[in-house]
Amino acid sequence: MKKNNLKLLIFSLLLIVGQVLMAQPPNPPSDPSTGNEVVGGDAPVGGGLEILLLMGLAYGSKKTYNIWKSKEKLED
Length: 76
Prior knowledge:
By secondary structure, the chain is mainly alpha-helical.
């Protein structure tokens, strides 16, 4: 039980830290008279990263559950 609580705590902290940190600093303001606009603007880098992490978590959870169930059947 303590292992599960520790894993849950670590996972929660990683999620919170990931939301707080910025992927990249904002670009400095450009002079409109020179026309030096930054290509792409201030677009965030990690837009789909959260989706990929959640999909990996779901896949790993399903695999772990299946292994746990098969071990439980073998013990019976």
